[in-house]
Amino acid sequence: MSLRKLAYLTAKTERLDIRPVTEADLASVFEIHRQDEVNQFLPYETWQDMQDAQAWYEVVKERRDSDSAEQFVLFHGAQLVGSMIFFSYDPNQRECELGYVLNKPFWGQGFMLEALHEMLPSVANLLNLEHFVATIEAENIASIKLLSRIGFSQIGEVVEKGILLKLFRSQAL
User: Fold this and answer.
1) 166 vs 88, 140, 169, CA distance in Å?
2) Using an 8 Å Cβ cutoff, are 46 and 30 in contact?
């Protein structure tokens, strides 16, 4: 099994179209990641220009080519709502790590909840997973609440680079 199985996964919900990111999405992705508030809990700096977006996409392609991650975009009509990534796939433990980001105008409207309800069962089925894991900064209360709403439980804490991180794992799917 491999994350390559996710390369053709698409989903549609009542409000969202979800698919793997393409280079054509970079201008929209840039609009999300040029916002300080959106990036405050992400492992990279706020983007300054399209060169940052292009560099990010090169990493996306490298991860895709090396079978280490798959990145998805979530559209509401023509507007990019956010993205999600699946990475650190472990077929022996039957788990995969999840990450996501939501464009600020869409905060608090249930879009990521809707996307995760749609995508997690599909990804679990394709990869034969029992669990998803996520690492969230302790100050990211909205994300912690979201994970709790979809059945994740906190399994520990760790400090990295002076930041308290909470470790979560989903219940069996």
Assistant:
1) 17, 10, 10
2) no
- Token readout for 40 is 């405050």
pLDDT tens column, 64-111: 999 999 999 999 999 999 999 999 999 999 999 999 999 999 999 999
pLDDT in tens, 33-57: 998 888 888 877 889 999 999 999 9
Q: Are 22 and 57 in contact (CB under 8 A)?
A: no
User: Could you tell me if residue 75 is left (phi over 0), alpha (psi between -120 and 50 degrees) or otherwise beta?
Assistant: beta
d(CA 167, CA 135): 5
Query: Measured in whole angstroms, how far is the alpha carbon of residue 159 from the centre of its chain?
Result: 21
pLDDT greater than 80 at residue 1: no
Helix runs in 11-83, H state only: 26-33, 36-39, 50-65
- Please choose, from the candidates 94, 170, 84, 91, the residue with its C-alpha nearest in 3D space to the C-alpha of residue 133: 170
Which SS3 state, helix, strand or coil, does residue 52 take?
helix
Q: Which 3 state secondary structure label does DSSP give 147?
A: helix
Q: Are 23 and 62 in contact (CB under 8 A)?
A: no
pLDDT at residue 172, as a whole number: 62
Two tokens, residue 34: 């040029």
